[in-house]
């Protein structure tokens, strides 16, 4: 696959978990749960100094009705129930908590979201003090600050993560184990919102999960990575990277994942880095090149590079061309004499008598020349097509036939550039 291919696999990445059929609770279950909910509400109303939580008999009945409506098969009814419970505020929490063990997965999800939203009424005042810089008192901030620094942008992004995933933020400072367990739960919540509510992921979801990738001592759970990949291909990521204030911090967060992307996602990660100007991906690209060289011909192929390796190598070389520096010349040197063919689509002129092929060394020499600010046409490439996003199209770097004599010109041009350094 060449650089013009569209990596639609991002949009169709498999989601964790199973599709759960949605069921409506029957009347008997509703009536059986009512006494315990009302008892919980009554206990709350009797607490001294908490007059604002007092509920009348009519209030109790109304909350009970609204909770029952959360399982309605009508979307409008469910949304009206959510709005009504939000109006009751903290007073609805005891009855919601009592109903949280319902067997209906959709209702459990809605109740969990509502409880998160209604709990801790002073959260927004805490947020206001935090965003203004007057306070650092937010769970998880010590860990996040070590990862993304302390700035207006980092605080705003952290708050969005905290609003979406307060349970995860509470585990951030407790070490890799608890953090990863909470990250899996957060990823599952995002998936359930997408599957059951048809809600797109939000920026807070992305920030929360990407933060967990910053600690290299802990592996990235597969389920978490699948959700991250999905978010990378969503509108929320595109919009955030266009925000002049937030983009630098968000790029750093994305870089945490890119440096550690699993093998199956590496080509997509590096192509994304080219599209959205994320230089942190150069570390991943260097690792890919080093692994390719170390793997050797036995696994990769003696004449043609195995396609399962070529895609990652192609993207890695382009990332280095865009974000690397002269220190990469030594790293690329073994590839500048690698004569194996790359299985990429090539530009074939209509009047061509010899098949044009792209070899590993064709791309590696072009990247090295680019790092030294050389000119590919002057170097002897026949029809190099450069591009602002992907640097150049690898399909345009080939030579006809054996091309040994033609390939020697770029090699000599590169040697001359290096000798002048």
Automatic annotation (TrEMBL):
Signal sequence range: 1-29
Gene3D superfamilies referenced in this protein's UniProt entry, alphabetically: Leucine-rich Repeat Variant
Keywords, sorted A to Z: Signal
Name of the featured protein: HEAT repeat protein
Organism of provenance: Rosistilla ulvae
